[in-house]
Description:
15% of the residues lie in helices and 29% in strands.
Amino acid sequence: MKKLAILGASGHGKVIADAALLSGFDSVVFFDDAWPKLAANGCWQVVGDSAQLLSCCRDFDGVIVAIGDNEIRASKSIVLLAAGAMLTTVVHPSAVISPFTVIGSGSFIAAGAVVQVDAVIGRFCIVNTNAAVEHDCTLGEAVHISPGAMLAGAVSVGDRSWVGIGACARQLVSIGSDVIVGAGAVVIRSISDSCMVVGNPARPLIR
Length: 207
Ligand SMILES: CC(C)(COP(=O)(O)OP(=O)(O)OC[C@H]1O[C@@H](n2cnc3c(N)ncnc32)[C@H](O)[C@@H]1OP(=O)(O)O)[C@@H](O)C(=O)NCCC(=O)NCCS
């Protein structure tokens, strides 16, 4: 009986729960700081808050954080690792993952995603529904590649960066750390750290 604990009773959490049950876990429970007011997430039980998960995390065969905010997901994952949690990777069975990839612990690869040969995915990442991470791409820690986003060959993405839904990046570009690439953007040049870019071609968002 393989048991998974998910921190974060979110919609994203349900997506991970669903994928986990299709990929070898037998049961899933959630932990969330909104507990006990929040007692269920879809058809799954919320059984405690993050403090309680810390005290029992070693009882689970896998633990994963389902919090969309990249910085919070990374920091909660690191605390769980320090408490002895078996931080797991969840890969939906319909994802296509080359055997010549490295995927860090605590990462989630969603339905229909493709991760090509020699890609390296850091810890705590999300490669979301139907996203593509082409050959030789490198994702740092806690990166989120949103649904339908496409990274061409050898793109690098720094820690905590978020590539929005349907965005794409030309081969060989480097996207820095803490970057937000807006929905539908087309990245054709490298982007420095902490920028928010939108549009085609992607340019910094000026307010
Ligand atoms: C880029 C983004 C983060 C900006 O969000 P925000 O700070 O709340 O920005 P606002 O919605 O206030 O928009 C500010 C301006 O930028 C423009 N803008 C926002 N997002 C844009 C985008 N993706 N492409 C082009 N222009 C965009 C808006 O039209 C607005 O322009 P205006 O001031 O001329 O009206 C957000 O729009 C976005 O694209 N998020 C990604 C969502 C996503 O991928 N979700 C998937 C989750 S799994």
